[in-house]
Amino acid sequence: MIKYTYLFILLLSYIIGKCYSYVLVDQTPPFTNHKYSETIQGCEFTYLFTISSLASDPDLTNCNAISSPIPFVSKELSVSARSCFFNIIASVPRGTGVVTINLQDIGDFNQTLSYICEDPPHPIINSNPDNVLKPYGDFFVVNMNLNLLKRLPLESNDIVIGSEAPFVCNLIPITYSLYQLNCTVDPSKIGSGTTFLFSIRDSTMNLSIFEINGGFLLDSRSINITTSWNKFDPPDVKLAGKQNYVIVDINNCTVNGVLMKSSETTQILLPKIIYGNPNEYILLYNRLYRTIILETLTLVYYTENNGTIAPVDKIPNTYTTSLDSISYIINATALSEGGNALNLKILFDGYFPSFIYRQYGGNSKDFLYQYPYGIVKREGRVVNLSIQAIIPYYQNTLQYSYIPDTDKYFWYNDVPSPGYPLDMILTNIQDLKLIKLSSTSFIISATIYDADSGFYRFSLRGAELLVKDRINGTYNNGVFQKYIDTRDPVYSTLATSQPGNFLSSISGGFSRSISSYGSLYPSIPIFYNIDPIAVRNQTIKISYFGFAINDVDLSENPCDNTLLVNFTNVDKKQTVNVLIDIPNYSDRYRSAKWDSNIEMFRFDFTLVPRLFTNNRVNISIYYADIYFSTSSLNDNQQLRVHSSFADQIGPLISNITRSPAVSLPSGGVIGWKFKIEDTYNGFKNGTIKIVSTIEPFSPIVFEIKPNSTQDIYQDEYQIEVYISPNCLTQFYYIYSIELVDNSYHTTFYSYQNIETTVSRLNPRPPITPLLDYINDENQSIIAPINVDCGFTRTDFEPPYVNYIAVSPETQPFDTFSNLRTVQVIFTVIDDANNILTSSFYSPYCYLEGLLFENVTTKATFVSNNGGPNSVDFLCRFNVPYGFGYPGPVIMLSIHGYYDTQMNIGGMAANDLQDAGMNPNIPMNYDSSDSFPVVEKIVPSEFTKRDTSITIVGHKFMGSTSIKVNIETIDGLEKYNYSVVPKYPIVIIVNNIKPMVKPFYLKVFNGGIDSNVLTITPTGEPFPPIPPCPGTPQCGGSSNGQCIEGVCQCIKPWSGVDCLSQNIFTPSPTINTTNPDIDNNFNTTLPDGESITLKSLISTVSLIELKPDGTIVIEHPFTQWVYTNTTSLQSNSNIQEFTYKTNITNNNLITPISVTLQYFKQPETIIFANEKLEMLASTIKYRIDISKYNFSSVLNTLQLVMSFALESQNSETMSCSVQESGDIGNTNSEYVKLQIDTHSLYGRFIKRGIIDNRIQQISNTIQNNNSSTSKSSQIFVGINIPNFRSFVVIDPDFSVLIDSTPASLKSNSICSLTEDTNESGLSKPQLAGIIIGCVGFGLVAIITISYILFKRRQYRKFQSNIQKKLDKHQNEHN
């Protein structure tokens, strides 16, 4: 028995030992496998998961040995003793099942991952009837609504375009069901008709065929290319790049069907429209060549020939460049080393400041190389450079390359220190967290280990964590943190791109792209870590997208427009970036702001005049990391622009005259006179730079713009250069010209096309303002002016520095402290000439840190007490936090000082050291760990309404409480806020007092002060909040809430005081003669009594007024043309009716249109960027007034509307009252007519659309109003300022029930007996009351009121009236 007991215990021990608790955690992002089959065999699903050991489990020893009955490709991403992270692709059959995961040596580990694999439907059907390709930017698109419920896996060869199609197309998924066919034209194809077929081939090899209409390429008009001309740089003139312009006049040809093709590329070249309209326009295509090329450019358009569509070649143009373009001669063989410092000596013929690409191993940094950095000597365009660098004490390849264009010219590409040790240890991330702070911000926190050279850089989707972001430990083994806020433009690419993750060490060795650090990378917490197609389909959809003005006429005026956008499941604090595809729009990419008044994201932008007509301006929206485009939206959501004649080219120079040369010792003045033309937009401003042959890199800059007496369309502008006596012999010439017109179109010229070639790369090089002179082989129009005072240069040696005193704020210097200023005093001397001391010729100081870090400051003159050839200068640096870390020193270089012979000099750190001076600043990075450092606040634009502030900096831990001190600059307000620190780099302070005045901010940590930030709040402060109307306010808590002085009513209550209710009324009686609303409203009160009201709303006349209010002329509206336009409405909730008429003033006919819309159901609309609730049965007016010929530019217009109400009830007791006023802190006013328990309530917006701008307007209640006890009428004038092109207004009204009788109002008019003279207003007498608002919206709401339990209150009502009559009688006795 004992024996068997012993064996049982052994068996039980074995079983227990094998029952481990290893756990599988599925980390696959949601919707990753929500897709149809992609192969004949079935689906390929991706799973990401971790197998981890629990505390009682032994280590995992063989993670590679995972298996499954389902075949899969396993990609083990990382392994540790306690966990294994896997990425597998499983090939699963059709149907429903599981993927079982087995792990060797763990017999009972067989956890599962489920799947559903199904084929797409066949055939795939497009339910969108619109199959016409439409132009969007450089592409042509058509949207397709497909019968799909999952993502459809597609390869490029699964989209089959018919051979007859002159297109190359891609099918792009927007959601699971919405796809977009995106095409470009292929002019090499000849089609067989205006339509073509394309097919989708699914995983079962079934084809679904669709027909697409590409007929936009054809035009039924007779195409006429009237003229063509060619401008080009002479092939044998020495230039950095050669320009070639082809310009064509075209009549009667579809704009998007005209293309340019090149003999040198298969790509389509899209010409630029510079003038015209869709009927007649001028195209320009400009090319910029940097190499020898023989190219033929051919214009292509399409025509129909015997039923086929075919491309037609026109005006082939051939251009050949020559061999004599400017070359770059670089000699960089001289290299000196000293410890970690390297010095590169370069002789550069053909020098021009541009980008320098610097790299040591895998660590690189671009640098915009600006004159005079590195200059030690210069003769014309031949320069000597001395470049300083500090590299790690590890062996690797150093590269310095000059990138003036698409080519790269190496200054140095070698291993500078072959004796340095090699870095042999891989950098590893041991822990990575992304700590969410808000919906727009998070902290990257990483523990990183590198026992050799140390950690240098980690990139995560474009956000960089650097070695200087250390919060504790060392660069070999430390914790690094960075604060990221996507509202900061620096991080805007986080939401628009997916750059790879990159990790590198200080040595530059083992730099690599990595996909894991020990487990799956955590997703950025403020973004959606799932398939964007699934997000748009399942989670985030556009719930509203609209413009203040959808159809914009830019023929004369600019347009200040607004885009409003909102999303389902919206996060108000998220970042919404907007990209508008508009030529020369300076703010084409920036962020929309949340507008709390309309509860949407708001993007204000300006459209410049005379843009070319475009029915679909392409706009892209980025919300978090989800992309939307207007190309996938409906036609009524598009932005459409129109110009009767477009101007999309900048100003041109029609003539340049030069002054005579200066040839006297006394000097003189030289200058140029430019005749500038811009026929349509007009010249706005320009910049002209003049240089000389002795100093070709420090230009004299002239800013020019028209004065009040000049003609912006054509005039002359003169610039002059003063030549001092005893001047040096040299030539002055035009270095560059940049001209801008009033629509911000720019033309640009640079000497020898150098800057054009270097800085402004293809495919859209700038247009030169010297277009008329580009063929001039002698270049006489830009010939230089000679200056010769009889003195020639006799000294060609530059000055030099013979003394420096470097004084860091602390010694040794610590850039991790808040004391980071460096002051440098230095002396420049010249053995033969005086030193120039004007600020124009001031030298620059440069500090160099490890791995190409640098900071620059301009010197200031101190004294020349040592004589005019010995001058002292001062440089003061504010060194960035962590600069140079972990290098042992930072080094000083000085460049850009001049003598009077215009010799320029400079000395790099090695040069200063060789001359016996000490340019080095020793570093100690841990001398002041307790000093808090404030770098910035978030948001950067702190407003006068902000009640919280985020402070970003360093060293905010170490004590239990941090104090934040805020003090206004005038010292009158002081506030201290205590915060419990949570993070070393961020402090969030909530519930602060809104600050209106500029203030200082600093942080106290353990009694130690930080540096001080000065903050100037922006925007407007909170306005005073008035009380809401009513007692109690807003009818009490059951009726509404008072929010910022405005009643927010709870349905069914409405009105300014939430004491009214909406009554549904049938569609109004539509008058086919004029746009008057003449209705009888019948309703039954709770006591069974029938009530009848008669109302009339009329558009009466348009009056021109002098500034003093005197009437110039009144235009009554007498005859209208009626059209039922309901069928044109895409919104089935709206019935629409349009009336048109004309008036004539000063021989100009002004069309006027009135559109009535009846809303069947409640709806929210936006007028003039104001959010308005339209009740059921609302009738809304839209009134358009076209160009009006004012008798004076000081005069204004007044649109008169009428608004009247009459009770036809047989009740003998009656009262009426009129009320008006503002509606809280809104842009609305109200007018209320009340008769007994019935009211007509009008609400109108004090804003209007005038000449493409939303403007403030006013409304005037006129004096010819009348009221009796049974009727009330008001005239309202809508005051329209003087305008140039058009005005739009939008009034509306609806029927309500009111709960406050007129008899209770102190200013009511009452009677006890029926007065037959007061009743029965005729229609002409009901000339009415205006519910009108110019611009976007007057809202008028008719209210029928009644008293609940009226019979019970009858006696009180009679008593109130009797008291009023008694009081009236006593006053007149």
Automatic annotation (TrEMBL):
- Residue ranges of domain DUF7743 in the record: 423-507
Start and end residues of each DUF7034 domain: 799-925
Please list the residue ranges annotated as the DUF7035 domain: 646-789
Keywords for this entry?
Membrane, Signal, Transmembrane, Transmembrane helix
Q: Do the record's keywords include Transport? A: no
Pfam families xref list: ComC_SSD, DUF7034, DUF7035, DUF7743, DUF7949
What residue range is the signal peptide?
1-21
Protein's UniProt keywords contain Translocase: no
Q: Per the UniProt record, which residue ranges are transmembrane?
A: 1326-1349
Q: Which residues form the DUF7949 domain?
A: 1028-1061
Pinpoint the ComC supersandwich domain residues. 1073-1296
Protein name, entry field: EGF-like domain-containing protein
Query: What is the source species?
Result: Tieghemostelium lacteum
